[in-house]
Amino acid sequence: MEEAAGERSNLAGVRHILLVLSGKGGVGKSTIATELALSLRHSGKKVGILDVDLCGPSIPRMFRAQDNDVHQCDSGWVPVFVDQDKSISLMSIGFLLEKPDDAVVWRGPKKNALIKQFVADVAWGDLDFLIVDTPPGTSDEHISTVEALRPYKPLGAILVTTPQAVSVGDVRRELTFCKKTGLRVLGIVENMSGFICPHCSECTNIFSKGGGEELAKHAGVPFLGCVPLDPQLSQSLEEGRDFIQEFPKSSAFPALAHITQQILDGMLQRSS
User: Fold this and answer.
1) Parallel, antiparallel or unpaired: strands 71-73 and 80-81
2) I need a surface site. Which of 25, 144, 156, 213 has the fewest CB within 10 A?
3) For residue 120, what are the contacts with CB-CB under 8 A and spacing of at least 6?
4) Rg (CA), the chain
C-alpha cells in the first residue's frame, strides 16, 4: 500500500500520458518524442519525457542535457530540467551511467525493476503531458511500461514507422501488441517520408512513400502525418537545439506542428 501511495503521489499531477512505440529500430521514435515535446511546450504545455530505452538512451543528448545528474528529493528522483522555466523535464538511464559509453548489459528482471522505479519514484510535479519514449519491439520493457502505467490510464500510443514495407510490417506487430494490452492507438506517424530539396523544393521519395498511411487505413486508426527527411531537423537533434523555434520555415515544421495539433484536438474531444 505504501508503494502504491508513492506512485499516486508522483504521477498525481500528470494529466496525460503518451507512449511513442514502434516495432522497428531506427525509425525515429526519439526524434518524434523530442519534437512533440518541444511543439507542446510552444503551445503552452508543461511536458516530461520518460526515456525507457535502457540500452540506447538518446533523449539526454537530443536536449543537450547529457552532462546533468539526477538528484534525490523527499519523494524520489528529481527529473532533469531542460530550461529555467522547467517547461520540459527528462528522466533517462543516460543520466545514471558513470560514463556515457557504458553499455547496459542487463537481463529482463533488472530492466523491468528500473522501469517500475522510473514510474514510481520520479517526482514529475505538475505536467500537462508525460511522453514515454520506448525501445523497439514488443518485449519485456514494453510490457513492464504498460503494466506500470495502466493504473494512471495512459491517453494512448503514437506509432512511428518509415515508409518501406519492412518497417511497416514490424509496426503492424506493434498494433497487435497495443490491441492485446488494451492500449489505445492515437495514430501512426510516417517518418523519413521523402526528402524535399532545399534548393528546388522537389520531393524525392528515398524510402518509398505511403506505407504508414496505408497501414493506418487498413488498421482503422488515425494517420497523423508524414515527416520528411530534413537536414535542419537532424542538425538540431545532434546539437540539442530547439528545432520548432529555430526552423519554422523548414520542410518538417508544418508536419510536426500538424501532428501536435491533432494530439491536442483529440485530447480536447475526449475531455469534452
Assistant:
1) unpaired
2) 25
3) 3, 6, 7, 10, 76, 148
4) 18
Amino acid letter for position 251: S
Contact criterion met (CB below 8 Å) for 52 and 133: yes
What pLDDT does residue 255 have? 94
In one-letter notation, the amino acid at residue 254 is: P
Residue 29: what pLDDT? 96
User: Can you tell me the distance from the alpha carbon of 139 to that of 55, in angstroms, rounded to the nearest whole number?
Assistant: 13
* DSSP characters over 202-254: -EE-BTBS-HHHHHHHHHT--EEEEEEE-HHHHHHHHHT--HHHH-TTSSSHH
pLDDT at position 63 is 97
The residue count of the chain comes to 272
Give the pLDDT confidence of 33-42 residue by residue, as tens digits: 999 999 999 9
pLDDT digits (tens, 9 = 90+) for 108-140: 899 999 999 999 999 999 999 999 999 998 888
Separation CA 80–CA 101 (nearest Å): 20
